[in-house]
Amino acid sequence: MSFEESEEKLIQHMQDFGLNPEKLIKSGNLIIKRFLTSEIYYYDKDRKIGGDIQAMITKDADPILMELEPFAIAEATGFEPDFIVIDSLSAISSSFQGKEQSYRIYIERLFRFFERIGSTNFLITETKQIPEIFSPTGVEEFLADGVIVFYNIRRENVRETAIEVLKMRGEKHQKKIVAMQITDKGMVVYPDQEVFGSIS
C-alpha cells in the first residue's frame, strides 16, 4: 500500500532488484495499490457505514467513525493478505497536521486492525539521519513488535549502509549496527561487520 510512489514505479523498483512482481500479480498473490491519504477509508461491514480520514480529523469527529476499521482490505478486494507493507507512515501522519491526537488514535486502531486480521506488517517511516525517535510520534515504535532501522550515512565522500534491529519483541537479537547491502539477489547482512561505532 503506497501513499507515495505509483504502482508502476514500485514494480520497476522490484524488477531492478531481480524480482518478478508481474508473475505474483498475475497469480493473485500480490496486489500493489497506490492511495491518496484522503482515500484512507473506514468501514464497518455489519453496520454498513464508512467515512474517510478527513471526517476523523475534524474537531468534532463523529464517535462512531472512531470505531470503524482503518481499511476495508478484504471487503474491497476479496484479498486476505498474509503480509502488508505500508509506505509510508510519514505520508499518513502529514494528513493529520495539527491533529496529533487524532493521528495517535488512528495509529492505535491501525495496529489493532492488523493484529486482528493476523497479517505480518511492515510499516515504513522516515527519520533524521541519526534519529532520536524512529517514527512520526514515537507511539508507533512502542506499539510495534519490532523496529528495524536502515542507515545510509555519509562519512567524508563515502556512503555506508547498515542495519540495526532496535527492537524485536520476544526474540533475542544482536544489539549493534552492522553492515548490509541491497543486491539483485536481495538484502545481504554482514552480522560480524560492525559499523558506525560513533553513533549513539
What's the helix and strand layout?
Layout: H1 7-16, H2 21-27, E1 41-44, E2 49-52, H3 53-57, H4 73-77, E3 83-87, H5 89-94, H6 100-117, E4 120-124, H7 139-143, E5 146-155, E6 158-168, E7 178-183, E8 186-194
Parallel strand pairs: 3-4
Antiparallel strand pairs: 1-2, 5-6, 6-7, 7-8
Structural class: alpha+beta
Largest sheet: 4 strands, antiparallel
Strand content: 25-35%
Low-confidence stretches: 59-66
Total E-strand runs: 8
Question: Helices and strands, in N-to-C order?
Answer: HHEEHHEHHEHEEEE
Instruction: Domain count, please report it.
Output: 2
Radius of gyration over C-alpha positions, nearest whole angstrom: 19 Å
Straight-line distance between termini: 33 Å
Q: Order of strands across the widest beta sheet?
A: 5-6-7-8
- The dominant shape is globular
Discrete helix count:
7
The helix fraction, in percent, is 25-40%
Output mean pLDDT: 78
Give structural notes.
- With 200 residues, the chain is α+β, with helices and mostly antiparallel strands.
- It has two domains: 35-144, no CATH class; 147-200, no CATH class.
- Helix content is 28%, strand content 27%.
- The protein has seven helices and eight strands, in the order ααββααβααβαββββ.
- It has helices at 7-16, 21-27, 53-57, 73-77, 89-94, 100-117, 139-143; strands at 41-44, 49-52, 83-87, 120-124, 146-155, 158-168, 178-183, 186-194.
- β1 and β2 form a beta hairpin.
- The longest helix is centred in the middle third of the chain and has 18 residues, at 100-117.
- The radius of gyration is 19 Å and the shape is globular.
- 14% of the residues are buried.
- The model is unreliable at 59-66 (pLDDT under 50).
